[in-house]
Each structure stands twice: as C-alpha cells, then as structure tokens.
Amino acid sequence: MKRKLDQNDEPAPGENAVGDEKISHHAGGQIELSFSDFDLDPRLLQALAKQKFRKPTLVQQKAIPLALDMKDVLAKAKTGSGKTAAYVLPILQSILQRKRTSTDKLVAALILVPTRELADQVLKVVGEFAAYCFNEIRAVNLADKQSDTVQRALLSGAPDIVVSTPTKALANVQSGALSPDKLSYLVLDEADLVMSYGYEDDLQKIAQVIPTSTQKMLTSATLSSEVDSLKGLFCRNPMMLDLEEPDEEGEGVAQYYTKCGEDEKFILAYIIMKLKLIKGKCIIFVSDVDRCYRLKLFFEQFGIRSCVLNSQLPVNSRIHVVEEFNRNVYDIIIASDEHEVIGDEDSPQAEKNGDEDGADRKKETGKSRPKKKRKTSRRDKEYGVSRGIDFRNVAYVFNFDLPTSSRSYTHRIGRTARAGRNGMALSFVVPKDLYRKHPPTTTETAEDDEKVLSKIIKHQEKKGKEMKPYTFDMAQVNNFRYRANDALRAVTKVAIREARTRELRQELIKSEKLKRHFEENPTELRHLRHDGELRAARTQPHLKHVPDYLLPKDGRKALTSEEIGYVSLRKHDAKDRKGRVFRKGGKGRGTKGARRSDPLKSFKMKSKGK
After folding, report:
1. Which of residues 498, 517, 534 is at a domain's end?
2. C-alpha to C-alpha distance for 23 and 3, rounded to whole angstroms
3. Which run of H or of E encompasses 25?
4. Does the keyword Nucleotide-binding belong to this entry (predicted)?
5. Band of pLDDT at residue 21, cut at 50, 70 and 90
C-alpha cells in the first residue's frame, strides 16, 4: 500500500500503511546519550574514540537502538548527519555477537549504494569502525571494475559484509556467487538515489530473493516517491524516522546568488579565486564534462590550480581525488554533476509529486512540458558527486552552472556545512535576456535559470532559509574584463578536446598500470597529483599576476558589497609552521603585526662576523 505525497514530495501525515510507525522528531531538548549507552562491543567503542566520535548524532541516537532490536528502519536525515554510522555500527555489533556463539561462515550483511565512490567510502567506514576486530570481520567491495572470476573469488570466503551497487549484486546472485538465503541485514543507502539512477529493475529482482526474515534499513536525505516505492518493495512494517536537526547559531549554509552574463561567469570566477574574495576549500559544480575542462584551462592561465572530477575518469582516479581533497592536497575541485535530477519539477509527474508550477502549467495548457534530454556521452553510469560522497571541510559550494531543479540544488549545497559546521553557497544565474549572448561560453541548462532560481528560493523559504544577492561593483569588475576575455579566447574547442584526451590518457595510466605498485607501496600514492596543467591554445605568463592598477582604490573589498571573506570551519588563532600563534595586531618576534627593521632607515645593522 503506497502513501499519498504532499507538496514537498514527502509522505503525507496520517497516510502511513497499516502497521507502519512514523517518528517525527525535531531536535531540541533531547536527552544527551553516549555510544556506551548502546552497549556496544568495547572494540567498537575504542574505534569510535580513535575516530573522535564524541557523542551520537540525532539519527544515530534514534536508529541504532531500533536496529539493535532487529526492527526494520527507514531513516530520513539531512546530508552529513551520520547515517552511515547509524547502520554500520549495529551490523558490526550483531556480527560480533553471532561469532561468539557460532562458527558458521556466511554473508551477514548486503549494503547497496548508488555509486562506486559511495561504495568505496562505506567500505572505508566499515574498516575504521572494525579496526580493533578486523581479524573477525571481513568486508568486500563488488562495485569496482573487476572480472567475474575475481568477484567470485572475493565471495568464495563468505565475507561478513558485502558492499555493492544493485547491478553488481544482482549479477553475483544470478551467477550463484552470492547466496542471499541466510542474509541477516540488507541496507539501501541513499535510497532515493538508488531508484533515480535506474536500478529499479535490479532492485525488484533482488527483492524477490531476499528472505522475509532479513532485517532491512533504508536511509535517505528525502522521503520521496522513490523511497516510498522501495519501502513497499522491501519492508513490511518499518519504523520511520523523519528527523530534523536545526542549525546551531552561526552554523549552516549562507546562500547567495549573482545574476550575470554567460561570459561574466568566467570573469567573476577569476576575480573570486585569484583575489581570494572567498577563501577556503571549494567544490565548483558545472553542467557537463566539457565545462570542467573549459574552466580548468581558463583558471590555469591565471595560475589557479584545480583538479577535475567527472564520470569519464577511471574510478580509482576519482576516489583518489576525493581522498587527496580531504587531506587538503587540493583546494579546488571542478565537478560535473551529470546525475542530478533533470527536469524533475517540470515533468509530467509534477502534479502527482506536488509541484505547484508544473500543476499550474498543466491546468492552463492542458499538458505539461516534457523532460529535457541532455546529450549523453561515454560516461560511468555509477558515478555521482552531489550526493553521498564525504567531502570534508568544504568552505563553500560554487554553482558555476545553476542546477535544473531545487532538489538538485539542495543536494549540491549539502557538500558544505556538514557535521554542525558552517559554510557558504554561491550560485551564478543567467537572466533570460542574456542567454546565448556569448555563444562560446553558453550552456543549454542556463536557459531556465531564472525560473529555477525562483523555485529554489521558494523551496528554501519553506525550510526557513534565505538566499541573498551577492552583488559586484561591475564598474570595478570591468578592469579585469580584457584579461579574462583574452584568456577565454585561448580556450578553444580543439584545446578542450585535446585536454580531455590527454587527461584521460594520463589518468588511465595512473589508475591501471600503477595500481599494483601502489598496492605494494601505499605511501607513494600521495605523490600522484591530479591538478597538473593541461595547457590552453596559447599561454601568457603575465596573466598569472594581478597588477595594482587593475584593483580599485579601496582594494579588493571594493569589488563586492558583501564582506564574506574567509569561511572559517573553527574559531582559532592562525599558526605558522613552527606552531607560533599569530594574533591580529600582535607585535614582536613571530607575530603577524611585527615590522622588520630596515637597516637603511635605522642605520642599525649587525655584522655577519668572521
């Protein structure tokens, strides 16, 4: 029995299927718990302490006890709230308990995820939590590109936990390599994405072979129609957790938008990055793979280092890029969000899913606008960036190309302000009258930017959030226009095509030929970089420097009315390499405010001695 959905594409209250129990919780006044209150194995508590998990998040407080009681759970919580630990810890606890009394070798848990990157991340989390009992727990990842023989070999030893995409899991079930007969746990992580990535047929076939006694856990950032379908497919009477954690004071995502022309996107991006108007690690979202390389080649001419992340790169390279970004090796990632929700709010399903604009259009014209079709390229269908992947310490998200729906926008900005920290999101919006005014830099997704912006603003207002305009003084920006346009002319279609080919060839070599070497020498993997120069049609060294005459009299702050500056993740005093503290206005040796004495002015100079 399916539930009706409200205007937010979420299950309407009071419409739960018979036997479902829904728990809506808005944080505030809840009892403070610790992980020791869950009676977890001491080795798991030791691993949590090593990973600096001080206290459970709201979703962990609610889901872990239910999972330990062997109840089916459907948990909806925001991105970065700790949903992975909420299902991994109960699974590890149950496996350890079973091994005390039984010596049977069988696959205990199957964790299904939508992307390869997320599969690798989940396997890493399992390894971290099982660090002190790793000899007793074995986990494998089937999402990697491996031959059937290799996967059969991995499953022959009956690992305790199998992490996979639905397609790979079904293939191994059908071949007999993976037996679900005695499966104890089934997890669907990012459940709404699992359906939207085209795994519906695979999931239906998997549901037919999963025993009814298997405990199911579904996690998602939204309660959409896809999640409702999965609940009816796998769960009988799940405990539904609809959790909302309000941002603490000073935390959350500060959201801004700027209306500009298509070529002005590049000019403003150059000014923001080169003059560091906004500081910190960032993810720049663009609409397709070509835009990744166009923007990277554009930045290179100004000495701005960045790395790209898209579906055409080998999965090993993509995973390594994310790991190095989290280790602060790279500060800028240019990512193509190719699996975003396309045309979701203007689809024929709009009226059914509660979209007001789609429903009104259908009433007026008698039909709704069909989904937009995007040009398909040779890409990895199991790639995804805007959801699931744990990008750490992201100061701000930069929507260079605005997404095509408010849902996709919400998923993108969820990459920052994670785990109770603050962050910022800046979006470029192309007005209708400026669309296709600069053909070399145009993109089809920008045609409806203003309509999408209005939906995003409306959607954020329902959540109590506000999007503010981020205004630039265009008179001052014009000083940089000649340089930016000169750099743009050097980024030709031929240069982009050659850059894509060269980058793909380099990454394939790094990913395949050196895979065995790096498995034997893991420390050397850190020397493998992904932000090397790709070279535009022509290079001009003088563009890497910003002359003083281009800056306004009042300095770089005069370029914008918004004083954002550095988006700090924690409040602390800066330190130099030797650990000395710099405090604003400080004087004396080792302080930021200290002035070096000039011997030509003071006539005080020490001899070097003999």
Report:
1. 534
2. 16
3. strand 21-26
4. yes
5. low
What are residue 75's DSSP bridge partners?
Answer: 219, 241
pLDDT-derived band of residue 527, with 50, 70 and 90 as boundaries? low
Dihedral Cα 319, 321, 326, 329, nearest 10 deg: 150
pTM (2 decimals)?
0.67
Question: Looking at residue 216, what DSSP letter applies?
Answer: E
- Residue 164 · residue 186 · CB < 8 Å: no
Q: If 0-12 CB within 10 Å is exposed, 13-18 middle and 19+ buried, where does residue 6 land? A: middle
Q: Is residue 511 part of a domain?
A: yes
Decide if 592 is inside a domain: no
The answer as to whether 572 is a domain residue is no
302 close to 487: Cβ distance less than 8 angstroms:
yes
At residue 239, the 3 state secondary structure works out as strand
Say if strands 282-286 and 332-336 run parallel, antiparallel, or are unpaired. parallel
**Domains in the chain, number:** 2
Q: Rounded to the nearest 5°, which phi and psi values hold at 188?
A: -115, 100
358's CB contacts (< 8 A; 6+ apart) are 345, 346, 347, 350, 351, 368, 369
For 206-252, the pLDDT digits (tens) are 999 999 899 999 998 777 777 788 888 888 788 888 887 655 444 57
Q: Are residues 75 and 193 in the same domain?
A: yes
Q: What is the pLDDT of residues 145-166, one digit of tens each?
A: 788 888 999 998 889 999 999 9
The DSSP element (H or E) to which 498 belongs, if any, is helix 493-508
Dihedral over Cα of 30, 33, 35, 39: its sign: negative
For residue 438, is pLDDT > 70? Answer: yes
Q: Measuring CA to CA, which residue among 438, 335, 492 is closest to residue 446?
A: 438
**H-assigned helices in 138-258:** 148-156, 166-175, 191-196, 200-209, 225-234
What do you get for the CA distance between the two ends of the chain, in Å?
92
Tell me which H or E stretch contains 308. Answer: strand 307-309
Domain boundary among 184, 211, 244: 244
- Any idea which of 156-160, 386-390, 583-587 has the lowest mean pLDDT? 583-587
Asked, for residue 233, whether it belongs to a domain, the answer is: yes
Between these two residues, 1 and 434, which has the higher pLDDT value?
A: 434
pLDDT tens-digit profile of 258-317?
Answer: 999 999 999 999 999 999 888 899 999 999 999 999 999 999 999 999 999 988 888 778
